[in-house]
Amino acid sequence: MTTRVLVAGATGYLGRYVVRELKARGHRVRVLARSTEKVESLSALGATPDEVRVGEVTRPESLRGLCDAVDVVFSSVGITRQKDGLTFRDVDYQGNLNLLREAERAGVRRFVYVSLVDGPQLR
Question: For residues 77 and 10, what is the distance between their CA atoms, to the nearest angstrom?
Answer without folding.
Answer: 8
